[in-house]
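Narrative of accomplishments. A recurring question from our advisory board has been how the design workflow behaves on a single, concrete structure rather than in aggregate. To address it, we present the structure tokens for one chain from the evaluation set, followed by the sequence designed for it. No filtering or post-editing was applied between the two.
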């Protein structure tokens, strides 16, 4: 793995952990913890994106890989990717809920939506910045590096597992890993990192819009009804 890739990963890790040290310092300046956390997250994500793009300037100068998708194929694969991602997500939810008896509803998603409702500007991170960073880290660098030395299955499992763990929602590991598999598949098929980025952005965007317009109480009732259905299907 090129040295610059390790610097990219280090930048991402520093971004993820920086809030633990910076937010308490901001609080000293009479800023409440929530506001400090939200605005530091926005700043740190944008700063990390700028640094990572700078570190990868050599990669961006390199011409298109042989067989890489053209504009038309990028659009088609991005659209197809959204359907594939939703289908994978549907299957994973079925497995988690009706086979593994895991309660529906992602705690990570709920936390993000709570922040977004209180600070709509946070949508910028969720829909735009995070998908770019995550696809560069988990697909281009981690998956890409392992894929060169092994095969698709090993590389996809390894990168998808790390992708799932970083989201801090271990109960729904299968759901996050299924998404990682789809994004890796799109990357391999098109040889364009922009395709999984677009698909990832669309998935996050649809989720934010759908849940932003849904009352939290309605969401809670929907999850309760889903749990009742689960009890009926698995026999209590």
């Amino acid at each position: 793995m090129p040295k610059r890739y390790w610097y990219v990963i280090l930048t991402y890790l520093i971004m993820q952990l920086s809030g633990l040290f910076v937010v308490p310092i901001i609080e000293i300046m009479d800023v409440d913890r929530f506001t400090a956390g939200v605005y530091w997250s926005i700043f740190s994500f944008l700063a990390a994106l700028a640094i990572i793009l700078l570190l990868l300037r050599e990669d961006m100068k390199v011409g298109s890989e042989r067989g890489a998708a053209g504009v038309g194929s990028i659009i088609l694969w991005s659209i197809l990717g959204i359907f594939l991602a939703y289908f994978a997500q549907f299957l994973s939810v079925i497995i988690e809920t009706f086979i593994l008896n895991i309660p529906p509803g992602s705690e990570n998603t709920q936390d993000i939506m709570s922040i977004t409702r209180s600070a709509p500007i946070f949508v910028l991170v969720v829909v735009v910045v995070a998908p770019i960073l995550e696809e560069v880290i988990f697909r281009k660098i981690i998956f890409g590096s392992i894929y060169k030395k092994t095969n698709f299955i090993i590389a996809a499992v390894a990168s998808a597992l790390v992708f799932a763990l970083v989201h801090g929602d271990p109960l729904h590991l299968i759901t996050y890993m299924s998404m990682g598999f789809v994004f890796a598949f799109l990357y391999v098929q098109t040889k364009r990192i922009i395709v999984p980025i677009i698909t990832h952005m669309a998935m996050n965007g649809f989720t934010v819009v759908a849940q932003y317009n849904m009352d939290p109480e309605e969401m809670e009732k929907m999850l309760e009804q889903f749990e009742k259905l689960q009890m009926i299907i698995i026999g209590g």
